[in-house]
């Protein structure tokens, strides 16, 4: 029998699919990140199953325990607290082990915080990048913003509510005019989406909010002809031996273009 990888609701319990409910009801074992949270889902839909914990602290041990049962033909369903196992949640280790052992793996799609936030933000583009949870620390964040300054398409990330104000302040310092949406408690009763330029959103979110957070960065505006000439001037000054920030500052004063924007774009 296959390993059934089951997407679970990211908030509203009614968002679970019929396929997932059937797999959970027929499974010999239900693996879940938090047995308490999964039990709420099971009880809500009248499913009599005994969930077993499978999280980041016991993932290796549980994989070793469960793999022989899969090879013996047991039906096992893998879930996480919300969304699809293996995407910023435990599960990838078991899935990989099952595939290497020749066990069939079936993925049952469902709710996605990434796609839900992207659409709700109004910042959808033809391409987007998902970067998982934002890194901790000012230097790591600054390095990520430098990288994303060269990625003109939308970006989706998860963030801790506690760290959100500091992360937004860091983003605003790096890319103040980049469109941003803070999506909070998606699909739940108190769902909220805060949209605007990074500098404005950072000014609005100065205290840690409650609930799950998904952050969306919109597309970067294309560089105009004037901006292109200014960037060439920055590049020439840098080649002549000037520091990049100094060069951006000089060209900014001459052209009236934003210094930070010139600096980031010149990278």
From the structure above, extract its key features.
alpha/beta, 267 residues
Distance between the termini: 52 Å
Number of distinct beta strands: 10
How large is the radius of gyration?
Answer: 23 Å
* Strand numbers in spatial order across the main sheet: 3-2-4-1-5
Low-confidence spans: pLDDT under 50, at least 5 residues? Answer: none
- Strand fraction: 15-25%
Shape: elongated
Class by SSE composition: alpha/beta
**Largest beta-sheet details:** 5 strands, parallel
**Helical residues, percent:** 40-55%
Give me the strand/helix succession: EHEHEHEHEHEHEHEEHEHHH
Number of helices: 11
How confident overall, as mean pLDDT?
A: 92
Blueprint of the fold:
Blueprint: E1 3-6, H1 18-26, E2 29-32, H2 35-44, E3 51-53, H3 59-71, E4 76-78, H4 92-100, E5 105-108, H5 113-121, E6 129-133, H6 138-148, E7 155-159, H7 164-174, E8 179-184, E9 192-197, H8 198-204, E10 213-217, H9 225-239, H10 244-255, H11 259-266
Parallel strand pairs: 1-4, 1-5, 2-3, 2-4, 6-7
Antiparallel strand pairs: 7-10, 8-9, 8-10
